[in-house]
Amino acid sequence: YEFLKLSTPKEGVALVTLHRPKALNALCTPLFKELHTALASLDADRSIGAIVITGSERAFAAGADIKEMKDLTFSAAYSGDFIELWSAAVAQVKKPIITAVNGYALGGGCELAMMGDILYCSAGATFGQPEIKLGTIPGAGGSQRLTRAIGKSRAMEVILTGENFSGKQAGEWGLAAKVFETPEECVEGALGTAEKIARLSRVAVKAAKEVVNKSQDLGLREGVEFERRVFHGLFGSRDQKIGMGAFAKKEKPEWSHE
Ligand code: HXC
């Protein structure tokens, strides 16, 4: 990969580090193509149970690549499904993704951070949707995901003014699940949580991610019904028998992941 670094720092955990330092990890199309390929292969890799995406201390990602976009026409954007790959790359991954955000997470960088399942950041991180200052609007889900995460009034304030907010605020507003003092602690914290998740039953984790995500799309009654169907379905899994059987025998479960 040219724009990514991949490693497996803990058992079952893949770390994907965005690496385009000269442009503060601006998300150009070649970078996103690589991310798509990397995430698809990690999703299919049976040795991996959870994925952490991070950037550098200075920037998670400073947005979509403005230089690449500036001369784009409507026709080319529409015909070429500009940005559609982003959702395909991240939102369709079935394994849990934790985004560990340090430095700038602006525009498309903030949107990428929010595409993960759990967002961790350092207190000094800088979030924002500054598109309005470029004469445009968020285009990779920011208006939808930020609004669901922090509520309409705050999301409107952020998106309409283009003003940034800190990692500390992200925690207070419920955008980030945890806020760490330093960038190192943030990445370590994300890897620790990913390791915990990777040790659990893969089939149960997959189902849990699927049902929580449904809550973003469905009404409460349909969502609860969907959850119950999947819950019923898990009585057909080996790991449900293993997990409940182990509890009854006061043993530790040895997951089959099936
Ligand atoms: C292309 C970018 C970039 C970006 C930074 N760079 N952000 N290139 N697209 N989004 C490049 C700079 O041009 C510069 O390259 C190098 O990275 C370092 O950036 P500086 O500006 O010199 O650093 P600094 O002064 O520290 O300022 C950091 C910054 C600033 C505040 C983050 O770079 C900035 O405002 N960036 C743009 C943030 C933004 O507007 N993001 C939203 C983009 S729109 P050179 O070659 O000059 O050294 C968007 C739309 C999403 O994301 C919707 C659909 C996906």
UniProtKB/TrEMBL annotation:
InterPro entries with a match to the protein in the record: ClpP/crotonase-like_dom_sf, Enoyl-CoA_hydra/iso, Enoyl-CoA_hydra_C
EC number: 4.2.1.17
Single GO biological process annotation from the record: fatty acid beta-oxidation
Cross-referenced Pfam families: ECH_1
Keywords associated with the record: Fatty acid metabolism, Lipid metabolism, Lyase, Virulence
GO terms, molecular function: enoyl-CoA hydratase activity
Transmembrane region(s): none
Cellular component terms per the entry's GO annotation: mitochondrion
Family: Belongs to the enoyl-CoA hydratase/isomerase family.
PANTHER family xref list: ENOYL-COA HYDRATASE, MITOCHONDRIAL, ENOYL-COA HYDRATASE-RELATED
Protein name from the UniProt record: Probable enoyl-CoA hydratase, mitochondrial
Organism taxonomic ancestry: Eukaryota, Fungi, Dikarya, Ascomycota, Pezizomycotina
